[in-house]
Design a protein that fits this description.
With 275 residues, this protein is α/β, with parallel strands linked by helices. The chain is built from eight helices and eight strands. The protein has a single domain, classed as 3-Layer(aba) Sandwich (Rossmann fold). It has an eight-stranded mixed beta sheet with strand order 3-2-1-4-5-6-7-8, with helices on both faces. This is SDR family NAD(P)-dependent oxidoreductase. It comes from Nocardia yunnanensis. InterPro entries: NAD(P)-bd_dom_sf, Sc_DH/Rdtase_CS, SDR_fam.
Length: 275
């Protein structure tokens, strides 16, 4: 069945080849929805697809599991992000939800992409921002939702417009990571305020652990299922949320000062759109 004729909800989950992204895609399938499972690394495509299909047909799975569509784009290459956005915009005139689960910790040393941007800044903020813009008409047509996985560390971030790609000064991985999550949270709030009518946009720190920071917390004890459940629930149209809100473990929480600052968010949007 083509994407345009599907009667199920269609949910795009980025980073399905990461732990949280996979668990979220699995939950979307279990709900009976069609999942567009985006992967960052093309070498993981077959293995991720096989695992998702196996999970959807396992004993105890939903009686009518949702469909699975695999797509790939390396967020460290903006040309691939733009190509994916064009394909999705052409094939899916309606998109019910976009869950941004793809993310990465900052590397130990300065690393820049072939596009010239600091790697963490591009993967955690620039790529999600561009992909969202590409599919925004489809989201608007469905009066859909955008759920961005951020971090409580966003409150410790700072946006240095003189050195967003961190080519100068001291390089600190936690500061780089916090900056990227702050920008994503600012974008999420702006999308709620300036996006199409009916669109809902929220950001969420989904659990008491940093999914992307194994140095800080153990992945072995991470409650992935509850985090994935939360993301899927926030992306569902029947779940009441505050548009533009930031959630910590399902509870509406305080936003960082820069996220509340409309002028700061407008400046970030202007810089991003220039790209």
């Amino acid at each position: 069945m083509s994407a345009t004729l599907s009667s199920t909800r269609v949910v795009l989950v980025t980073g399905a080849d990461t732990r949280l992204g996979f668990a979220t895609a699995q939950r979307v399938i279990a709900d009976g929805d069609t999942v567009i499972a985006h992967i960052l690394d093309k070498n993981h495509a077959d293995a991720t697809a096989e695992r998702l299909r196996a999970a959807s047909t396992a004993p105890g799975a939903a009686a009518a599991p949702g469909r699975i569509r695999m797509v790939q784009a390396d967020f460290a290459r903006l040309a691939e992000v733009d190509a994916l956005g064009s394909v999705l915009a052409a094939e899916y005139p309606r998109l019910d939800a976009l869950i941004h689960a793809a993310s990465m910790p900052a590397p130990d040393a300065r690393t820049h992409t072939e596009d010239g941007h600091e790697l963490t800044w591009q993967v955690n903020y620039l790529a999600p921002q561009r992909l969202t813009a590409a599919v925004l008409p489809a989201l608007a047509a469905a009066r859909g939702r955008v759920v961005a996985v951020t971090s409580a560390l966003h409150a410790a971030g700072n946006i240095d417009y003189t050195d967003l790609d961190r080519r100068r000064g001291i390089y600190t991985p936690l500061a780089i990571y916090a900056q990227s999550k702050l920008a994503l949270t600012m974008f999420s709030r702006s999308l709620a305020e300036t996006g199409p009518e009916g669109l809902v946009s929220v950001s969420v720190h989904p659990a008491d652990f940093e999914i992307d920071l194994p140095r800080l917390r153990s992945h072995r004890t991470a409650p992935l299922e509850s985090a994935a459940d939360l993301l899927a629930r926030l992306a569902a149209p029947g779940t009441p949320v505050t548009n533009g809100g930031y959630y910590e473990r399902g509870t509406l929480a305080n936003l960082a000062a820069l996220v509340r600052n409309s002028r700061a968010r407008a400046r970030l949007a202007a810089w991003s759109n220039q790209l």
